[in-house]
Amino acid sequence: MGVNYPFKREYGEVVSPGHPDKLADAVADRIVAAVSGRDSSALVGVEAATALNRVFVTGRVAAREKLMALDLNAVVKEVYRDAGYGRRASGVIWAPDPEEIDVDETGLIRDEIDEDERGIRCLSDDQSITVGYAVSSPETNYIPRAQWLAWQVMREIRSLTSVRQDEFGPDAKVLTETTGDGHGWMLRRLVVSMQHSSEIDWSENARIVYNALDNLKERFSETRVNCSIDCDSIDLIVNGHGDFSTGGPMGDNGLSGKKLVMDAYGPMVPIGGGAYSGKDPHKVDRVGAVLAREMALYSVINGGNPWDIVQLTWAPGRPDYISLNSMMGAEGLRNIFPDTIEKCVSRYFQKSDCEAIPELAVEGWYSGFCNTPWESLCRENMENRGV
């Protein structure tokens, strides 16, 4: 790792797929995937909200006529089941039970897209400033270390609790604080909130977190991640508010798009643009963001910059971005990468990529967990380094 790492102290935050906001993201993105995966020029702009046993879907879906029959009740139930809600084999129920969810779509417009509207899908239908970021930290997938570590901690906790589903529920949050420089870094503070059964010994919550940290420490040693995890010196807070037996939509409402900082690069990087979830691949908030990310990766990996922020400006009615700014002054990006919406959609969102959109909402757009076209530079560089 180079000595020009930009942050001495940084923070990261991630929530689980069972968090109310992420449930809403997943519902919105399942709709996008179901429609865009079968009609590449369909228009999808939807938002979802979760509260108790109700889900509200608003916005518009315009596609081929046969796609208008999309069963939203089935989509929502699948999202909730995948997140861990419902009845376990032992009889334990993590509410809300997917079978009892009421889906309200009175605010959703479903219509057939006509050929005139299809013809202008190559043009931006909104204004936006999309931001891409990369930092010269291959071990953390070129994203800020604290944010990458939050993803790692959450995934480890989910793995450990997945075999104890009678005791631990679907809802969880992780907040990390790290310090370091270009030569090494360490976890200083960790805040974890975990949904649990009302009968559990609360010490089991902390035991799960300590086991997760031990597993990560061992894995980091094997994979040469230069992160120090000393459980004796970490300021660890687990379920600091006390009882968390009521979680998910039964404990808080959720709304798609609220976790856009987590979806991007965490709190250390300006995000620009708007939310990713609920938007078809022609929407510039989505396709422009991944274009900017690949440009930033190129600036760092191929251009030798320690970090970069790439900003792209989009205007309604234009087929391409109207301005490009690399904070590190990376040259040639406009000539190397696609400059129009249609070219970007072809590059980043083929049918199989559209089908994977729901996974991105819960596993992370830039976490390194998903095999996406815009992260190909990361994978190629890791392979060249023999990692």
N to C succession of SSEs: EHEEHEEEHEHEEHEEEHHEEHHHHH
Structural class given helices, strands, pairing?
alpha+beta
Number of separate strands: 14
CATH class of the largest domain: Alpha Beta
Poorly predicted regions? none
Please state the second-level CATH architecture of the largest domain: 2-Layer Sandwich
Mean pLDDT: 94
Into how many domains do the coordinates divide? Answer: 3
Portion in strands: 15-25%
Query: Helix content range of the residues, please?
Result: 25-40%
Summed up:
This protein is of the alpha+beta class and 387 residues long. It is 33% helix and 24% strand. It has 12 helices and 14 strands.
Secondary-structure map:
Elements: E1 9-15, H1 20-36, E2 43-51, E3 54-63, H2 72-83, E4 86-87, E5 93-94, E6 102-112, H3 115-119, E7 128-135, H4 145-161, E8 168-180, E9 185-196, H5 203-223, E10 227-228, E11 235-238, E12 254-255, H6 260-263, H7 284-301, E13 307-314, E14 323-326, H8 333-336, H9 341-348, H10 351-355, H11 357-363, H12 376-384
Parallel strand pairs: 3-6, 9-10, 9-11
Antiparallel strand pairs: 1-8, 2-3, 2-12, 4-5, 7-13, 8-9, 13-14
